[in-house]
Write a structure and sequence with these properties.
Shape of chain A: elongated
Order of helices and strands of chain A: HHHEEEHHEHEEHHEHEEE
Strand order of the largest sheet of chain A: 4-5-6-9-8-7
Number of helices of chain A: 9
Oligomer: homodimer
Radius of gyration of chain A: 22 Å
Distance between the termini of chain A: 26 Å
Number of domains of chain A: 2
Largest interface: A-B, 61 and 61 residues
CATH architecture of the largest domain in chain A: 3-Layer(aba) Sandwich
CATH superfamily of the largest domain in chain A: Chorismate lyase-like
Number of strands of chain A: 10
Helix content of chain A: 25-40%
Amino acid sequence: MQQSPVPPETPIYRRIADGLREAILSGEFRDGDRLPGENALMAQHGIARATARQALSVLINEGLAVPKRGSGVYVRQFRPLRRHGSRRLSQERWGRGQAIWDSDTRGRPYTVDEMQIDREEAEEEIARVLDSAQVWVRRRRYSVDGRPVQLAVSYFPAALVEGTAVVREDTGPGGVYARLGDLGHAPAHFTEELRARMPHPHETVLLDLPAGTPVLVIMRTAYTANGVPVEVNEMILDSASYVLQYDFDA
Amino acid sequence: MQQSPVPPETPIYRRIADGLREAILSGEFRDGDRLPGENALMAQHGIARATARQALSVLINEGLAVPKRGSGVYVRQFRPLRRHGSRRLSQERWGRGQAIWDSDTRGRPYTVDEMQIDREEAEEEIARVLDSAQVWVRRRRYSVDGRPVQLAVSYFPAALVEGTAVVREDTGPGGVYARLGDLGHAPAHFTEELRARMPHPHETVLLDLPAGTPVLVIMRTAYTANGVPVEVNEMILDSASYVLQYDFDA
């Protein structure tokens, strides 16, 4: 919605990419549509194959399109999950034994895998926030509609959760927050810190990210009503799979 | 903080990039430090110049490093602004005539340029949200410490703000929200929708973004106490310049 002044010396592959981008952003091409291929662009614009390829790679690098081997370049499928920052973590929800993820996916099937639960020495920042040198760590990956969308690593002060359901694979109805509640440490306040960056290589692999797709990094700290930090959760989200929503008052 | 398994067939440039990345993420190299150059990498690892260049370009593409012409590759400076979603827009603030940006920058000097104020026919989505076919549009760019960090485009229902200070360059103390308040339409609730993606070309130019830097896109709608939408603000943020913070209760 910003203005897009195109200087006259723009190279031809850029101008073709600009035209295709316009068509994608305006909805002329829709999610999953096949874009004109190299041959079509060559014929239409009288250009070399390398130029046509360059034009398409601009859109791929911007994350607007994905190549499928041997079949062409397609408008990136984007059916994002709406992650509602404040509403999804209401006590009413996990207090009733509901999984937080049911709120995000609204009926779309999701799975959790790559689960790892370990007792570890905390990294400096985590140790500082949780005021605990030893932590229990829950690592897992979430997939929706069969596609990996999020990596999450939760850290808990070791002394707080030792021997409880928080460190078991199946945490029971309402998950870890309900269990922290059972222990008298129910989360009451949350702080989320949010960044975006390009993925590191292992994130690209685990989230199966196409080129040109950044990740959203959310670091959430959960505090009890007394202000005691009981969890740090570092989440890595495929940015193409998410819209994050936060509501607040003036 | 995720695990990073490196398969044995990893090419040499990847392994060198992995080592440099580790050194950056662990703090061994700090913001603004010069990374080992092509010659140093060639000597250290017994590799060709092209391989050394490839290793460095991995880090540049991930946004962890920036090349400076003729002088080498440096760890990306990152002194982010903390944008506090809920606190910065409190009525107490703009009601006292304070600029919202004073909250974000905490004394660091900021400037606004590229200001454009126009009356326009609204795009479909904006028209739908504001329930108004005609809108006044305020476009501007914010820079902090002389570096552009954010593009913002605010839309107001034309009938609501016609002939008021909202459509003047200088909106006075407290800015547009204070002026909407004067008109009896003070914002009371906000919804922010947040995405990350790679920048479009004009955003790369206006925000002077190095390669491998995604943007955060925030679409905020302001509602009066009666639920009347009075502004849509679409913000494009340099992701390397921002940490967004949201606080909320369980």
